[in-house]
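Hey L., structure's done. Input below.
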Amino acid sequence: MFQLKLLVGAMAGMIGLAAVGTPAIVGTHAGCLAKGPRRRRWVSVILTLVLLVSGVIVGAGSALLFVRHRALMRIRQPSEAVAMDTGRIQKSLGLTDQQARKVETIRKTWLPRANPPPP
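Output:
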């Protein structure tokens, strides 16, 4: 008789019914189920941090590749940088040639004050 109850209980567990009428968890243990979501949460957090760090590295590398040329030109040849900036300002604001020359003169006047040479 005991073996029959055990067999019926096992079959009920396999089809998803517990002995008291509540759904049973098929193929897992209750202790393992409690640890699953927590482990998954940590895995998600770690993968998110890895993705964030890799994005920062790729962004920094891209910025170095694309911005390096302009930054070095501004440091090594500031007068050419002023001329290029003036041309860009003239185009975007629709300045005349006379206005552009005034802007370039003002920028060249203020450039040494804004970027003093190192001691």
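Residues 30-76 form the longest helix (47 residues). The helical segments are 2-15, 30-76, 78-93, 97-114.

-- N.
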